[in-house]
Write a sequence for this structure.
């Protein structure tokens, strides 16, 4: 079977429509407010059948159950996470297979990736059910394959950093916010289901913390490259510096880091600071 596949080769049926990823914008050292606006115009989830799409002015605002946009925004969020779980399954599956001939890699690496596949396949089912629960359907919004892109590095240490530490770290933050929304909406199905999935994601982030250390032990150059890759991916997931901004209505941070969950997954205070500091400089924004 073919190894080291690209995101173009992912199998999807005709329900799915794909959007491009503006990788240059996401990895830039400095962005302008205009760049940010066109990024959000491009990336906002588009509902294929209805008029309703995410509005620029709502980006960076915490979602509350009483918001008019809440029903569609929650459908979009569940759809986005469903797609992310599917790509996490595909990425971990590829990491089980791509390195079977690599004698330098302990078999326990594949074992952990196989365990992750088992979990991610359950998560795909859980989010498919949650999407039903909030009245959405598979294929309702466009898909971007950003997650899988970071699972395509040739170096397994970069894969576990990009996917397990950076992306699944982001998932912990998103899930924390979804649990918060579910509790505010008194929707036990949402918050309890997402809480169960979060427990698995803590394990996956921990895989990233452990394997990135083990695989670069005694190889400072490889470790340097892996840390550099981690910064790049963390920057991409700062979404042009929008994370860490404040919701103008409530003065609360937009999608704050899930500190407690990240610490359970092996993040130190310095690691958390690295994630916070990963955002690009935004030109034209006064401090
Ligand atoms: Fe997952
Ligand atoms: Fe995961």
């Amino acid at each position: 079977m073919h190894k080291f596949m690209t995101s173009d080769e992912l199998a999807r049926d005709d329900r799915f429509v794909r959007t491009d990823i503006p990788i240059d914008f996401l990895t830039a050292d400095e962005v302008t407010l205009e760049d940010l606006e066109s990024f959000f115009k491009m990336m906002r989830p588009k509902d294929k059948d209805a008029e309703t799409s995410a509005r620029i002015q709502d980006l960076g605002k915490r979602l509350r159950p009483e918001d008019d946009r809440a029903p569609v925004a929650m459908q979009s969020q569940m759809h986005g996470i469903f797609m992310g779980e599917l790509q996490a399954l595909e990425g971990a599956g590829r990491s089980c297979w791509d390195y079977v001939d690599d004698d330098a890699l302990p078999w326990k690496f594949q074992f952990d990736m196989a365990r992750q596949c088992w979990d991610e396949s359950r998560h795909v089912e859980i989010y498919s059910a949650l999407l039903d629960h909030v009245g959405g359907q598979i294929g309702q919004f466009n898909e971007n394959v950003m997650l899988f892109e970071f699972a395509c590095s040739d170096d397994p240490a970069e894969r576990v950093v990009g996917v397990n530490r950076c992306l699944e770290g982001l998932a912990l933050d998103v899930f924390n916010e979804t649990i918060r929304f579910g509790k505010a909406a008194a929707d036990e199905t949402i918050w309890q289901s997402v809480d169960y999935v979060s427990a698995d994601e803590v394990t996956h982030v921990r895989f990233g913390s452990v394997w990135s250390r083990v695989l670069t032990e005694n190889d400072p150059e490889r470790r340097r490259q892996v840390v550099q890759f981690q910064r790049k991916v963390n920057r991409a997931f700062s979404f042009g510096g929008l994370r860490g901004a404040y919701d103008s209505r409530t003065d609360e941070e937009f999608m704050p880091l899930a500190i407690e969950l990240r610490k359970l997954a092996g993040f130190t205070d310095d690691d958390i600071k690295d994630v916070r500091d990963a955002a690009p400089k935004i030109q034209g924004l006064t401090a």
The chain has a mean pLDDT of 88. The pocket of fe (ii) ion (ligand 2) is lined by residues 88, 120, 168, 201, 204 (CB under 6 Å). Residues 47 and 140 are 6 Å apart (CA to CA).
